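Researcher: I'd like a candidate sequence for this fold, 465 residues long. If you have to choose between options at a position, lean toward the conservative one.
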């Protein structure tokens, strides 16, 4: 290109230095009544330009070769700048119009095979994205804004469509179409990744906490070692979180891309930016299509993980029934354990996900696990009540003190201790939820669960001697 610029520079100097008089005579540049002007002839258009084009075509046949897109871009850009400078030497708008209508002018522009150049760029840009997606949900190199390689390459490809040394104004419509195709292909890629991941048919009661390590558990129901299940490939917690984070990041950056495209199109006189905005809005909607499925898998796993510990409420009666265990003053350890998966996710991904996303996951997961916790506690209290009534009937039948319910310190019966423990557990559970930045009023059935255990505790207190 530097050599080409030198050639063009000498060509532009040729007319002012060697053909000035001819240009003035034929172009009417001499403003004198006595000047002899050749009417109907434009020296710059009819003599100089055709010879320049002929010389370029004969002596520089490789000038128009699009085989190397980077070199082609440089040669094309330098050549178009030369054309603009040559037009300024024509001296009048009428002369410029005649130049642009001249067959050699059209021939020169047609020599530049822009469709082939675009096809090479298309193969280069789209090919890099396809290559990245063929690796699946591989992690991106550290330090970038995206967590998945496919996401990082997508954003790089989108920017490249409109970047200097790639984008050409005459190909604006093609690069715009490619932009939408890239976004659509990425949406399809995410959909395929989710659809290929079959949910493992497994025991839903056994769950493990989320892990950010490479060996993290999949966001499907975990199975007991003794249960039979079909083994299928499942997305890891890290992969699902990465998809959510990348889609959210891409949604935030699309307006930046829109401004870049708008600036490019303004330079070529395009003004209908409403169509542009609507198309990008559709692309963003398509990208968001996978989010509900991702959210569902994450929250289901979190719920299973939490309830895997909360179901230990069913073991509370065993701890107090005929054991003479002291009256408890604090919550059971299983409550803290139940919230560890949530704390772990927040710790691992607080710098990756927006707080609002994490809070929404927690709210949905806790609502579901609380619903199951409610069912477990209600079943325990119902069982306690039945046991209590059975013992009372037995006492009345035998009419002897030996059939009475054993009492320990404080006069609380075993059933009363069970009710008190469950009340302490649920109240502590609510306190920990609030410490996580959530309101218990946002957790479905929590108020009903709290009323249930508080009512049971009041009953235990009323029965205390």
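Model: Candidate sequence:
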């Amino acid at each position: 290109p530097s050599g080409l610029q030198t050639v063009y520079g000498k060509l532009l100097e040729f007319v002012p230095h060697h053909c000035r008089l001819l240009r003035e005579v034929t172009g009417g540049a001499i403003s004198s009544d006595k000047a002899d002007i050749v009417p109907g002839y434009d020296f710059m258009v009819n003599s100089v330009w055709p010879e320049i084009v002929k010389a370029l075509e004969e002596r520089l046949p490789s000038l128009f070769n699009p085989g190397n897109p980077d070199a082609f871009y440089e040669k094309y850009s330098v050549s178009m700048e030369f054309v603009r400078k040559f037009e300024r030497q024509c001296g009048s708008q009428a002369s410029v119009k005649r130049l642009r209508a001249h067959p050699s002018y059209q021939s020169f522009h047609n020599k530049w095979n822009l469709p082939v150049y675009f096809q090479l760029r298309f193969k280069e840009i789209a090919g890099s994205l396809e290559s990245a997606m063929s690796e699946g949900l591989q992690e991106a190199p550290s330090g970038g804004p995206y967590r998945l390689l496919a996401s990082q390459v997508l954003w790089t490809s989108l920017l490249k469509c409109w970047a200097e040394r790639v984008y050409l104004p005459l190909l604006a419509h093609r690069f715009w179409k490619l932009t939408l195709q890239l976004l659509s292909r990425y949406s399809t890629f995410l959909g395929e990744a989710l659809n290929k991941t079959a949910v493992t048919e497994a025991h839903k009661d056994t769950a493990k906490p989320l892990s950010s390590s490479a060996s993290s558990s999949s966001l499907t129901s975990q199975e007991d070692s003794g249960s039979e299940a079909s083994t299928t490939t499942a997305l890891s917690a890290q992969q699902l979180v990465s998809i959510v984070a990348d889609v959210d990041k891409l949604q935030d950056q699309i307006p930046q891309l829109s401004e870049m495209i708008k600036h490019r199109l303004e330079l070529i006189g395009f003004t209908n930016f409403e169509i542009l905005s609507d198309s990008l809005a559709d692309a963003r909607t398509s990208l968001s299509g996978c989010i509900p499925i991702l959210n569902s898998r994450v929250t289901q796993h979190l719920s299973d993980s939490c309830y895997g510990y909360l179901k230990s409420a069913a073991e509370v009666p065993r701890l107090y029934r005929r054991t003479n265990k002291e009256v408890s003053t604090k919550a059971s350890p299983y409550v803290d354990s139940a919230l560890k998966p949530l704390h772990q996710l927040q710790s691992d991904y607080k710098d990756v996900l927006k707080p609002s996303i994490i809070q929404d996951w927690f709210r949905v997961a806790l609502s579901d696990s609380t619903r199951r916790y409610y069912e477990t506690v209600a079943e325990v209290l119902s069982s306690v009540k039945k046991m209590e009534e059975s013992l009372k009937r037995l006492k009345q039948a035998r009419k002897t003190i030996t059939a009475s319910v054993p009492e320990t310190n404080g006069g609380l019966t075993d059933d009363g201790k069970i009710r008190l423990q469950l009340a302490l557990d649920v109240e502590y559970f609510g306190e920990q939820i609030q410490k996580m930045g959530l309101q218990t009023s946002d957790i479905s059935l929590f108020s009903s669960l709290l009323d249930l255990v508080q009512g049971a505790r009041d009953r235990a207190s009323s029965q205390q001697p």
